[in-house]
Amino acid sequence: MFHGNVSLEIAEGLQLLRKRIASANIPPSKLDETLNIATWNVREFGKKKRSQAAIHYIAEIIGQFDLVGLVELRDNLTDLKRVLEILGPYWDAIYSDAILDHGGNRERVCYIFDSRAVRFNGMACEASPPRKKRGTEYLSEDSWWRAPYVASFKAGNYDFLAFTTHVRWGNSVESRRKEIEGLADWVHGKSKEKHADDADIIVMGDFNIDKRSGPLFEAITKHGLLIPKALAEDEFGTNLARDKRYDQILHMPRFEETFTNAGGVLDFYASDHKPLFPDLTKSEFTYQLSDHLPLWIQINTDIDGMMLEQLIQRKQR
Description:
By secondary structure, the chain is an alpha+beta fold. The chain is built from eight helices and 13 strands.
């Protein structure tokens, strides 16, 4: 991390922020053994220039992880580049193109990652609904307001696809449910492909699912996507009030031991924004940091033993 010669106010803010980060109990990752992954909706990141303090705070939060899937990154990438400069030369980013219509909100999806811990594995794409032949054309019957962004990564012996999305809020639960169901279908189909890039799929982002029951949660889990145990035990939220988990991390793993018992939210807000931004209202604060908290999980990437055990079990049958 390269915060440099910051002002006294930013230095004091970073010191307080680090105390709040410490309360999240994020274990350090170990090279070729574990990987810390997070998803974070950074509110309209790039729409309006962030303050210097906000850029340092965002970099400090992202730097706690090895790979972060960001949503609500806007078409203007200036503030993203400011964050990357503070994170340092080992950090990199890949991102989708902006969707410029009203439904897309000029948003991108972005993966920011520490290349010492995880590397981009070559495949990146926007997911789209399946097409059917109509006359001489192949057209999609459904539409997603914002295309999910999918990228392949490798850490240690662990290859995986990261699938990050920002689901519409829309004007009805039914429109949201239909979109979420289509995303679940896409992930299921990808997991069954004969020549799929990677068998493990990490699904994350802002799904606008407010609780783990009802039609929206049933839609995303219809094909067996699971919440890692570390995130399933409590009902904590990812909004500032900590009562709605709009953001999700789910998985379709090859091995049950893919995830460690570590996971949760990083609460940079701690019910009081004034120590970080004393001159701002709460609403103004959300446009400097965010109205969402990062949701994170730790992954086992040293899977040699699991692969050997699976091979032995197959041969003994």
